[in-house]
Amino acid sequence: IARTAIQQNESALLSGIFQTQGIKAVHFKGDNISRLYPSPEMRVSSDIDFLIDAKQRDNVKAVMEQQGYQTMHFKDSDVDVYYKLPVLNVEIHTCLFEDHGFNGYFDDYLKRAVMCGEGFRFSQADFYIYAVAHFYKHYNASGCGIRFLIDHYLLGRAVADADLQVNDELEKIGLLDFKMKMDTIAQKWFADVYAPAAMDDFEGYILASGIYGTTEGNIQNKKAKLTKKYGKRSAAFI
Question: What does the DSSP assignment read for the chain?
C-alpha cells in the first residue's frame, strides 16, 4: 500500500514538472492498469513508466536529476532508467516497442495521447490495443503469467462499446486471434464461462510462466522459432 501511494504521488508530481518544462510525457503501463483493480495496491508495479519524444531525453534527464534521481541507464537503449530511494524506479521510454515492430502501427502513439486528469494518457481503446501487443510480446518471448491475463480481462471490460472497433485494429497487426484466445481463457477463469479443451495448453503455459515468463520458456520459444524458419538443425545453435 505504501509503495503504491508513493508511486502515485510521484507520478503526478513528475507529470506536472514535465508539463511546466514543455515535455509531453505520457503515463502508461501499470499506472493505467492499476486504476481498474478494486484497489490499486492489488496490482503492484515495479516502476513508473512514461513515453516521451526521443528529442526530449536530455531535458528529462535534467529534470530527473534535479528531483534527486540517480541515472541508471541513459541512451544505451530505447529506455532510460532512473532510481531514487526508497522504492522509486522510473522508466522513460522513447518508443513502445524496442524492435519497432508491428509494422510501425504504434509509431504515432505519442501524438495521439491527450491530456486527462493530471497528465497525458492514451484513449482507452488505444491503450487496450497497446496492452494486447505488450501481452503478446511477453507471451511469445519468455511467457507471461496470471497477472497479464487479469490485466487483459479488466482492460477488456473497460473498453466501451463504442470502441469495439479495436478488433479491426488488432486484425491489422495480426493480434486478433491471440486476443480472442486470451479472452476465452480470461472468461473461463474470472467469469466462469465454459472454454473448450483446446485452451488447456495455453492455460498450462500461463500457469507455469511466473509473472514475466521463465528462462526455459524463452529458450523453448527461440528453438521453436528457429526450427520453423531454418529447420530442425537450427535448434543445436541455442
Answer: -HHHHHHHHHHHHHHHHHHHTT---EE-THHHHGGGSSSGGGS--SSEEEE--GGGHHHHHHHHHHTTPEEEE-SSSSEEEEEETTTEEEEEESSS-TT--GGGTTTTHHHH-EEETTEEE--HHHHHHHHHHHHHHHHHHT---HHHHHHHHHHHHHS-GGGTTHHHHHHHTT-HHHHHHHHHHHHHHHH-----GGGHHHHHHHHTSTTT--HHHHHHHHHHHHHHHH-GGGGGG-
Question: What is the amino acid identity at position 53?
Answer: D
Cα distances from 150 to residues 33, 41, 115, 145, in angstroms, run: 10, 14, 27, 9
The parts of the chain modelled with pLDDT lower than 70 are 100, 160-164, 211-238
Residue 213 Cα distances to 17, 64, 147, 218, angstroms: 35, 31, 11, 8
Residue 216 CB partners (closer than 8 Å, separation 6+): none
Strands 26-27, 48-51: pairing kind:
antiparallel
Task: Strand 70-73: give its sheet, edge to edge.
Answer: 70-73, 79-84, 88-93, 48-51, 26-27, 119-121, 114-116
Instruction: State residue 112's pLDDT score.
Output: 94
Q: In this predicted structure, what is the pLDDT of residue 163?
A: 65
Contact 75, 95 (CB under 8 A): no
The pTM score is: 0.86
pLDDT at 231: 57
Cβ contact 120:27 at 8 Å: yes
